[in-house]
Amino acid sequence: MASNRRRESNTDSHNSIAVRTVVISSLLLAGIFIALFFLENKLGNLLGKYADEATIGLMLLMLWLVVGSGIRSVNSLSKSIPAWKLLLSGIAIAGMSAILYSAFLIVFPKVAKSPAFTEVAGASGGMILLLMGFAFIISLIAIVNVRVKNKMLGNVLEFLIIGGCIGGFVYFATR
Known about the structure:
Layout: H1 2-47, H2 51-77, H3 83-107, H4 117-147, H5 151-173
């Protein structure tokens, strides 16, 4: 009986830590996305026609940093949390931040590049799925870094994950 209570309390603690970390990380990442959106015009003066690509690259870099940091935070605050909850946390960080960023563009249509609601909403759906896919890969790599103690095995697993992603990309690109 006491063991079940301890297990339920431990699960509640895991969930609470994961949810709080996801919310804070998502708000941070959405704020960074919005800031990068406003900086895109300044980058346009500096980089010319490559400002969009630079902004997307910076968004992906920030996604990698925030999702990886979020997973490391959840793991360090709750050492015995299951790996699937870490993976779900990473995906949720990307999903929530993309939803918040899209909501910002929909609520403030004058700021968005296209004032048409359907264009912004349609592009937002694709962006949410794409960022969640990237977050899945980033989360897998972060979990390998956090949980695998053997460095050689960790490097092999990272190589397999990245190689699988490259192989999948090449397969679908040449189809």
